[in-house]
Recover the amino acids of this structure.
């Protein structure tokens, strides 16, 4: 997948791996020589970048609407693996809020206030890209 990550910027490295993950996750590309560990590592990158992109583009409402909560458990596991504990804690709160309120019931003032506050907290956290780049660089055996 990547021959040498040393010469790539974090952004280039993530883009390269994410594109491969998208080919597998979204396009159904079959790569026979990937180990289960490599497949899981690609999935980790995929679900974290989906979270980061969706929330930064339209908030958690967009994330839950577009993903239909399909990636929740994988995202929770991936955030834990890369060490993004603050992101995981916020994500867990948003999952609970989403499940109890339902996306279309976000009109309630208290729910909307929490939603907005937690989105603002998410935006204030370090970018998940830094966690993903470190994860890729620390685990090159999964991305060769």
């Amino acid at each position: 997948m990547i021959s040498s990550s040393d010469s790539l910027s974090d952004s280039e490295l993530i883009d390269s791996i994410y594109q491969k993950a998208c080919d597998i996750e979204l396009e159904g590309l079959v790569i026979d020589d990937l180990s289960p560990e490599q497949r899981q590592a690609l999935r980790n990158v995929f679900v974290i970048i989906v979270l980061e992109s969706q929330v930064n583009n339209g908030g958690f409402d967009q994330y839950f609407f577009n993903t239909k909560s399909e990636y929740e458990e994988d995202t929770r596991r991936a955030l834990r693996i890369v060490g993004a504990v603050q992101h995981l804690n916020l994500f867990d709160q948003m999952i609970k809020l989403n499940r109890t309120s339902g996306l279309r019931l976000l009109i309630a003032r208290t729910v909307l206030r929490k939603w907005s506050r937690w989105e603002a907290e998410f935006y204030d956290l370090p970018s998940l890209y830094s966690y993903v780049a470190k994860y890729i660089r620390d685990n090159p055996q999964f991305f060769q």
About this structure: Residues 24 and 30 are 7 Å apart (CA to CA). The mean pLDDT is 86.
